[in-house]
Amino acid sequence: MGVGTLDITPSERSYVLKVLRSNRLSYGPWSRRFEREFAKLHDSRFAVFVNSGTSALSIAIACLKEAGKWREGDEVIVPAVTFVATVNVVLEHHLRPVFVDVDPRTYNIDPGKIEHAITKRTRAIIPVHLFGLCADMSSIMRIARKHKLKVLEDSCETMGVRYRGRMTGSFGDISCFSTYVAHLVVTGVGGLALTKNERYAEILRSLANHGRDTIYLSVDDDKDIDGERFEEIIHRRFRFIRRGYSFRATEMEAALGVGQLECLAQILRTRRANAKVLLNGLKAYERFLQLPWYNPRIQEHAFMMFPIVIHKDAPFTKMELVSVLERWNIETRDMLPLINQPVYRSLRIAQNDYPVASWINTHGFYVGCHQGLKRRDLQYMLDVFQKFFRARSLI
Fold first, then answer.
1. Structural domains in the chain?
2. pTM for the complete prediction?
3. Residues 108, 135: contact at Cβ < 8 Å?
C-alpha cells in the first residue's frame, strides 16, 4: 500500500481528450481555467500554473527578490523540517536560509522561535504547511508585519483547507502549491504560484516564460485586436525584460487539474475519514507513538499523509517498526529530514540547535491515508501494527 494514489475520473479523461482534439498543448483556455478556479478556491486573485511546486517556489523567490531589491546573501527564514526544495530555491537565488525549529505537535515552524532568528538582513519567512496542516499563520503574519518581512507560503502539501476561517495560501504575499504525483490534486507534473498582488502576478508570469514581456505570453494574445494596441503587441511580443525560466506546463496537465478540483472536496472527506480510522486504531499505542495532532476549532487537516513519530523512550527503533511495515507491503517514508541531509553539510548546521527537528529526523515516518485506501486496507495496516506490538509483548 503506497503513500499516494491517482484515480482518473471519466470527466478528467474527457477533458484531456478535448485538449487533444483541439490540437493545442501550449498555454490556453484550460490553463487559464485551472488558474482561475484554483485561485478562487484559495481566496486569491491570480494564479500562475507552472511545471512543478519547486518551480513555483523558485519564481516566487525571484519575484520577491526583484521587487524588494534584495541582495545576494540576504536571509530567508525556513523551517528545520521540510522538503529540500524549500531550501534549494533559497540557495539557488544566492540567499541564505536561516533555520528555525518546528513545533513538536504540528511539525510546522514554531512561531515562538522565529524572532530569535531575525537579523537586519532578514527579508522573508517561508512557513511550510506540512503533511496537510496549515502553520500558525496568525502568529507568523503578526511577526512579519512587525519586522516588515515578506511571507511566502509553501503550501505544496496542503490545499483546500482553512485556518481560522481563511484558506491556506491566502495569508502571504505569494503562496505555492504542487500538483505532482501523490499530492492532493494530481496533474502528473505541475505547481501553482498564487498572489493577490497584480505586480507580483505579472513578474511571476514573466519569470515562468523565459522572462518575456507579459504583453504576449500566448498565441491568443494578438488575436481580435486592432489599432495601436495590435501594433504595440507586435512590437513587444519578442522582448525579454528579465532573466527567466522555462517552467511552463501544458494544456493536458491543466485539464487534469480542472477535473481534479471537481473531486477535491470528496478527496478531502475521504482522507479525513481514513485518518480518523487510523487515529482510533493506533490510540492503543500512544505511549509509544505520537499521532497527528491539530486543533479542529481553528484549523482543518487535509491529511496528505499520516505522520507518526516514535517517542524517545520507546523500547524499539524507527527502523524496527518501519522494516516490519515494509515487509508487509505498507510503504513508509521519512518525515522530510532536512538539516541532516548530506547536500547541506557545507552549511555547517548545528543539529543540536534544533532538538525537535533532530527528534523527528531520527524517529519520524509517515504512511498513506489517501482516498484510494479502502476500509479493509486500513484494517490491514492496523493489524500489522498490532502484530508488531504483540510480538514485543507491548500490548
1. 10-258 (3.40.640.10), 264-391 (3.90.1150.10)
2. 0.95
3. yes
Nearest-angstrom CA–CA distance, 153 and 105? 20
pLDDT single digits (tens) 42-69: 999 999 999 999 999 999 999 999 999 9
Q: What gap in Å lies between CA 275 and CA 115, rounded to an integer?
A: 34
CB 321 within 8 A of CB 388: yes
User: Are 63 and 203 in contact, with CB atoms under 8 Å apart?
Assistant: yes
User: For cell 504595440, what's the residue?
Assistant: 232
Which residues sit opposite 98 in a β-bridge? 77
Amino acid residing at 189? V
**Would you say 264 and 158 are in contact if contact means Cβ atoms under 8 Å apart?**
no
Angle (CA) 379 383 388, round 5°: 150
Whole-angstrom distance, CA of residue 52 vs CA of residue 191: 4
Q: Cα 307–296–196 angle (5° rounding)? A: 90
- The set of cell numbers assigned to 140 is 507568523
**Can you name the residues that pair with 290 across neighbouring β-strands?**
309
**Rounded Cα–Cα distance for residues 10 and 96 (Å):** 46
To which H or E segment does residue 199 belong?
helix 198-208
C-alpha angle 217-189-94 in degrees, rounded to nearest 5? 70
Contact call for residues 78 and 339 (beta carbons, < 8 A): no
What's the rounded Cα separation, in Å, for the pair 257 and 166? 22
Rounded-to-integer distance, Cα 3 and Cα 5, Å: 7
Average pLDDT of the segment spanning 329-347: 96
Cα–Cα dist 78/99, whole Å: 5
Strand-strand pairing, 150-154 and 174-178: parallel
H/E stretch holding 153 reads: strand 150-154
Pairing of strands 150-154, 122-125: parallel
Distance of CA 116 to the CA centre of its chain: 25
d(CA 57, CA 92): 11
As given in the structure block, the three cell numbers for residue 270 are 475521504
Checking if the pLDDT of 228 tops 90, the result is no
| Residue 34 CB-density burial (10 A; 0-12 exposed, 13-18 middle, 19+ buried) | buried
